[in-house]
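Milestone M4 deliverable, item 7.
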Amino acid sequence: MSKQQISGSKNTTIKLYNYDRIITRTFTLIQKDLSENNFRVIKKFDRVLVNESLSDARRSKILSTLLSLSRMLKKNWDEVNREDIEQLVYNFNKRFSKDGQETNTTSERKKILKNFYRW
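Output delivered:
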């Protein structure tokens, strides 16, 4: 079986996902669904992600997770305390894990939440 070129140029790259559009769409949803305060906080955190040279795919994942967590939290991030975080973790563990077992989803959400909250 031979390899076929999709176009005439060997240097052509194919993008499966348009992460710029996904990130823009996520920010639109963040601005629409969350408070202005949460929008500003997440926007500042995104600048940190860019400065850390994270890929657009990773930024997209982090931003969409923060949108989801913010919706679950129903509170401004700058007003959150330890008890709120513990309740949030409890809620998504209950929602995404079977019988208290750690899943990839819960593990990834904990990592993102930990990095965001420490920042």
